[in-house]
Amino acid sequence: AQQYRITLLSGDGIGPEIMAIAVQVLKVVGEKFDLTFEFQAALLGGAAIDATGEPLPAETLAQCKNSDAVLLAAIGGYKWDTLPRHLRPETGLLGLRAGLGLFANLRPATILPQLIDASSLKREIVEGVDIMVVRELTGGIYFGQPRGIFTTETGEKRGVNTMAYTESEIERIGRVAFETAQKRGKKLCSVDKSNVLEVSQLWRDRITTLSAEYPDVELSHMYVDAAAMQLVRQPTQFDTIVTSNLFGDILSDAAAMLTGSIGMLPSASLGASNPGLYEPVHGSAPDIAGQDKANPLAQVLSAAMMLRYGLNQPTAADYIEQAVLTVLDQDYRTGDIMSEGKTLFGCQAIGDALIKA
Amino acid sequence: AQQYRITLLSGDGIGPEIMAIAVQVLKVVGEKFDLTFEFQAALLGGAAIDATGEPLPAETLAQCKNSDAVLLAAIGGYKWDTLPRHLRPETGLLGLRAGLGLFANLRPATILPQLIDASSLKREIVEGVDIMVVRELTGGIYFGQPRGIFTTETGEKRGVNTMAYTESEIERIGRVAFETAQKRGKKLCSVDKSNVLEVSQLWRDRITTLSAEYPDVELSHMYVDAAAMQLVRQPTQFDTIVTSNLFGDILSDAAAMLTGSIGMLPSASLGASNPGLYEPVHGSAPDIAGQDKANPLAQVLSAAMMLRYGLNQPTAADYIEQAVLTVLDQDYRTGDIMSEGKTLFGCQAIGDALIKA
Ligand SMILES: CC(C)[C@H](C(=O)O)[C@@H](O)C(=O)O
Ligand SMILES: CC(C)[C@H](C(=O)O)[C@@H](O)C(=O)O
């Protein structure tokens, strides 16, 4: 049997509940496809702060590096929101991205026919939406230097961050985006703000140059403000989107919300080699933690992305995705995607239904 | 009669057509309310590039400074898109904002009951949407230094922009926002990315401190990615939003698109004193220029904002806004907001109907 070491970062809030379901599902899939998963748990975020005083203990990073893939649930919560920034759960996540060199974040936003009415947009606008946002994840303003709060000559404070990209950083994420588009609808829209920012100008130039190597992909460019508009106006115009860290943060969340069901959306963060990081788009939902109310499907679909992108087991990934569709077809729903005529299930009951499926 | 000198920047594309209607309307309003408008035309954007080689001729800036208000239509077009950035139409607009010290951009996004079906969002989601985005306009990453494309030690290019705010810049826009909220629903949401950016941390701190002076306004904070989501999910939760230049660029356009009719939306850009700049949110639409198809209503509503915010003539502003509603109630529509059962009118015909109304 093929053997994989998977680091599990259950994190905070609903994290442990939804992670438990994903592990149950992976075990069943492992038996079916003759894959052996060796799971090792590690601490990240609030859970790590409480136990060790740091959001990303060195041991966690070491364990992650020493594995084939990292499955993360969700981190954060009100409890840690007042800590200084270097001790906040999010800082642990940023450190993990940097530490594992995860420069490419794949964020699908797909409308499932079963859940189309969950969208706040009209059915005819969102029908068929199938967008992949490829977000640069280890550069740009998230990591640029100089940064900080400084005192000016006149004695007042000045906050500073730096948005910067080198050509090689742009090229690297550009290649992932073109290759992703090649496997999808062969349309790539690069989003920038090159009418105002020099860093975007370099971005646009490099992506344009790179496109010569991918003649089968149709490249277009859009300003970030226009992209925010067009996602709302006519989202089906997009296939694959590539953009910088900050713009990707905003646009991938906007795209996710078009579906109306962010409890369904997984993501993958990839580097030049394994391990990649796989996590749901939604947060840790501390208000419903421990009540068996959470929707585990994004977590389960993140495990499917792990199989597809990290472990090169596309058939096993398909199998999980099919089970999710079956459960939805059976009209089982957690509270976040509940609607009239459907059956309300808790987190574990959805897990049981998945395993049956 | 009260006398006002108004600089008219008709700009490019549909600019001259819609500006003509606004001027006709202002003349009628002037007679009615005993206001005399002295109009002086000046060049900005593509029109200025063609005539003088520069997007913002010194004479234009001087004329604007020497007036009580500046009314702008729209600038830009494919024709000038390949020019180097310092010669692009947008650069002229940025220079005008900086030159007039217009640090506060007011961007309303209001759903008119007559046009609710133009939205791509469901009726029940957008019904009653009435948001004012207060965007900082002369700071942040749009103007921060250092900026440019540099060569690194390894010989590759690196694009750099700087997102920076001082306390006084934050305080200044914060005051405008709190005062705007006081005149509206008394709810202010400050949008930042303080979980990642130091500049946002300073922003959040200053806005929070400032809120002590405005106890009647309920202040909340939201991350920019969450705000992009919430605008799509439940836009009625927002009253007034305050944010930085770049985030405001993105969010005000997203908010505008919720209405589905950006041909209806005006904006005001204000400094510490007059003149302010008043312009529609939409662009210059070169594809329909000169065909009498453009929707002049955003331009006319921009003239109303000028009367309200710049010339302190709220009754005259009300009068114009009422006329716009009347024309919509009469079911007259330009192509961009046309729907079944309405009457299709050209730009000038809408102008005539406004004047009758
Ligand atoms: C938690 C936060 C630091 C993070 C980000 O901004 O990248 C989150 O919003 C995301 O998109 O994964
Ligand atoms: C044209 C461009 C420079 C401008 C901006 O980004 O500010 C526009 O998008 C706007 O919002 O007024």
TrEMBL record, chains A, B:
Gene Ontology molecular function: 3-isopropylmalate dehydrogenase activity; magnesium ion binding; NAD binding
Domain spans labelled Isopropylmalate dehydrogenase-like: 5-354
Site keyed Important for catalysis: positions: 142, 193
Cofactor note: Binds 1 Mg(2+) or Mn(2+) ion per subunit.
EC primary class: oxidoreductase
Binding residue positions for NAD(+): 77-90, 283-295
Positions that bind Mg(2+): 225, 249, 253
GO biological process: L-leucine biosynthetic process
Keywords: Amino-acid biosynthesis, Branched-chain amino acid biosynthesis, Cytoplasm, Leucine biosynthesis, Magnesium, Manganese, Metal-binding, NAD, Oxidoreductase
GO cellular component: cytosol
Pathway(s) of this molecule: Amino-acid biosynthesis; L-leucine biosynthesis; L-leucine from 3-methyl-2-oxobutanoate: step 3/4
Localization per Swiss-Prot or TrEMBL: Cytoplasm
NCBIfam families: leuB
HAMAP family documented for this protein: LeuB_type1 (MF_01033)
Family as reported in the entry's similarity comment: Belongs to the isocitrate and isopropylmalate dehydrogenases family. LeuB type 1 subfamily.
Name of the protein in its database record: 3-isopropylmalate dehydrogenase
Gene: leuB
